[in-house]
Design a protein that fits this description.
By secondary structure, this protein is α+β, with helices and mostly antiparallel strands. It has four helices and six strands. Strands 1-2-3-4-6-5 form a six-stranded antiparallel β-sheet, covered by helices on one side. The protein is globular and about 40 Å long. GO terms for molecular function: DNA binding.
Length: 119
Amino acid sequence: MTPQELRAFCLSFNASVEDFPFTPETSVFKVLGKLFALTRLDARPLTVNLKCDPDDAVRLRGEYPGLIIPGYHMNKRHWNTVTVDGDLPDRLVRELVEDSYDLVVAGLPRPDRLRLDRP
């Protein structure tokens, strides 16, 4: 997955936006103000921090050592750092981004979740 593909995919979700609260180089993708992906699109290798179910996070780290690691500068229980331009299939990267978005949406207040469900 290229940096442009990662950016476009993150922005394809309902109400997602790109923000730069830390540095102009660090893209933070949010849904209704809540972070679901964080990356430096110019970094090599390209990595992205993604929210993950704690049990899945540990399992994924075991299945993909070196490619999926505990979240860099994040809560290691709930976040993984995923190497996007490595040996992971693009399909898996997309699933992990979508899971991160879904986990963040699930934690939003009910009125916000309902608002996201409207076309």
